[in-house]
Amino acid sequence: MSDDVTSEIKARLSLSTVVGRRTKLVRKGRNDFMALCPFHGEKTPSFHVMDDKGTYYCFGCGEKGDVFTFVQKTENLGFREALERLAAEAGVTLPEQNPEAKQQAERRQTLHEVLEAACAWYEAQLKTGAGQAGRDYFAKRGLTPATVARFRLGFAPPGSTALKDAMIARGFAPALLVEAGLLRQPDDGRPPYDYFRDRVTFPIRDARGRVIAFGARTLGDGEPKYLNSPETPLFHKGDTLFNLNLAREAALKCGRVLVCEGYMDVIALDQAGIAEAVAPLGTALTENQLAALWRLAPEPVLCFDGDKAGQRAAHRALDRALPLLKPGHSLRFLTLPDNLDPDELIRRDGVAAMRIAIDKAVPLVDYLWAAELATADLTTPERRAAFEQRIGRRVFEIADTRLQIHYREELRGRVRALLARQRPQRPQRQPGYGYGGGMGRGGGRFGGPPVPLGASPSLRASRLARGENIGGDSNEALLLLLLIRYPALLPQVEEDLIRVGFEVPALDRLRSELLSIPFDAPDLDSDRVKGHLADVGLAETIARLENDPFLAMHAGIRDDLTIDLVEEEWRHALALHFRRILRAELSEAQATYDAAPTESNVRRIQAIREELTRIESQGSRNRD
């Protein structure tokens, strides 16, 4: 579409007028407005509309765009559909499409017309004598006539040509009915016959409310119990959510969307006043469906039955979502009690019980942890190591680097706490020996081996006694000591410090305390930092760092050191730390690939190698 047409639409339609239909605007200037964001729930307005620029931006969730993107996202439309709608409102005539595109658009319109006619026919059949079985089914499920009408529920009577004959009588060709998914064409050349027979019908509508397909449920013992239309030019299961057209307004208003397993769950929730419910169409959530859900709410609630099938569906959703997570966009998981589905829970305990259950939905990170822990065997060191390795692999599936860092930190802490409870008690100290488990007196540095108290000075000064060859923690300790001695570096390396995974609990605690210090505090120097750390019980940890000759050599305080030189040293130590971690991950990834040579495992190896190359080259530059 030419820029002249889109510019003309923008000139005739103010952005504030279009946005004002979705959220109340408060004028902040001649051409500026603020509002509660329609893309995420908030109590303080952070959505900025700039009429003079024709753009909007939310300081809370980061959504931004122009009038076209706003209509696309709030109404789940493609660009062409949004363009046509805004052009009609602005009174702008769109140029003719090329002949092929025009023909496709006309064909799609004809398919919409035949599907609308079929929906009306199914609705009418529900009211006939033959439709009594369908009416009885809906009444048994507790649906009111108003709900049946709202969702345009219907009935496909027995017989192989009832719909076919009715549609042909209205002038629709059999080939069109096949293309629309209303008739099935046998492979042996026999005439086509009705796709749905002796079933109640559930029209599937797009975001604009147009019928694009049907779902249907058998009233007898036939299989499958539920049947959806086949893929058509209008209907793609992986792109469609049942009830999106009705749920969208409620979801945007309350900042929440509930994802259920089936049609009846969604309909029962809507009838009970929970109108923000949708459902996938018998498949695991797809990337496109997740994107549509995230346009409605930042953390959609996935509601699954408590039975095995429901939990398998939840696990599939978790697997699909992990690579797609991004800051501000996640999922919450709800498992209903007693193997009930939402419809059953509402009928048994009432809608209040359902609302309470929704409020108790757990964040994705908690569900992931519980799912992995449920199958974990922690009875031996090898099995505990395998569990830790498996958690690491799941975190690596998250594509967003920043989010992956936070997940790694969160789950690493949980693993440490869990395994600390699983490990056997350490033996009592033997006379004359100290054990280097962390920061105990007499032991090797930060997890080094036991050293006799009467050992010679040369042994005590050796690399073995200092633990440099067994824990890989020398660089971790150096990173912290440099920051203690040069706290002005803290603001510049804060994000990198968050990323570091500290293996020694005492050092990990020290890192957390450093991050809690207000970096902008006046007169922040080494003495003040050490004073704060001593106040929280880390004086001995600091003393061990400062008294270590290896660390003192690299982190000594000198008047000629600029902050740039200190940062160079710090980043070199960071590169060495990450190189060691990545090499271990690479070995583990290669072993995983040998056991299962899948494409995802190949990508994992490639990603680790690329990151390792980057880290090593960065380290080389820092030392040049």
Mean of pLDDT: 82
Structural class: alpha+beta
What is the name of the CATH class of the largest domain? Mainly Alpha
Instruction: Please state how the strands of the largest beta sheet are arranged side by side.
Output: 1-2-3-4-5
* Count of β-strands: 18
**What's the architecture of the largest domain in CATH terms?**
Orthogonal Bundle
Broad shape: globular
Strand fraction band? 5-15%
Largest sheet: 5 strands, antiparallel
- Stated plainly, the CATH topology of the largest domain is called DNAb Helicase, Chain A
Give the low-pLDDT segments.
Answer: 425-472
Output the radius of gyration. 32 Å
What does this structure look like?
The structure is a single chain. With 624 residues, the chain is α+β, with helices and mostly antiparallel strands. The chain folds into five domains: 88 residues, DNA Primase, Chain A (Alpha-Beta Complex); 135 residues, DNA primase, catalytic core, N-terminal domain (DNA primase DNAg catalytic core, N-terminal domain, Alpha-Beta Complex), CATH 3.90.980; 132 residues, Dna Topoisomerase Vi A Subunit, Chain: A, domain 2 (3-Layer(aba) Sandwich); 47 residues; 153 residues, DNAb Helicase, Chain A (Orthogonal Bundle). The protein is 52% helix and 9% strand. The strands form five sheets. It has a five-stranded antiparallel β-sheet. It has a five-stranded mixed β-sheet with strand order 13-12-14-15-16, with helices on both faces. A four-stranded antiparallel β-sheet has the order 6-9-10-11, with helices on one face. Helix 3 crosses helix 4, helix 17 packs antiparallel against helix 18 and helix 21 packs across helix 26. The two termini are 53 Å apart.
